[in-house]
Amino acid sequence: MKQTSLKSDRVAELLDAITESTHESRLEAVTVALERRLRELEGGNRAERTLGWLEHAVWPRLPKAERGRAPSKEEQEDILGF
Questions:
Q1: What does 18-70 look like in DSSP terms, one character per residue?
Q2: Which end of the chain has fewer CB atoms < 10 Å from its terminal CB, N or C?
């Protein structure tokens, strides 16, 4: 069996947050996360891939004031060219 040692404060923070929320062991949390990521890379569910892309690539780039706010009717019409 190949051993892996990760020395990253960010990884430790993320892992702690997940294990506190899920009550999984650290090993189980890492296994679940890696299996989920591998399924994404292998094609997985289109909706899951889209949501992952939104969560990691799109939403973090939005100004905080705009997150969770739907466009007004006027903004929608402007976007659609009405």
A1: HHHHH---HHHHHHHHHHHHHHHHTT--HHHHHHHHIIIIIGGGS-GGGTT-P
A2: N
Nearest-angstrom CA–CA distance, 25 and 29: 6
> Closest Cα to residue 12, out of 30, 36, 34?
30
Write down the number of H helices and E strands in the chain: 4, 0
Does the pTM surpass 0.70? The reply is: no
In the chain, the amino acid numbered 42 is E
Cα separation of 42 and 51, whole Å?
Answer: 16
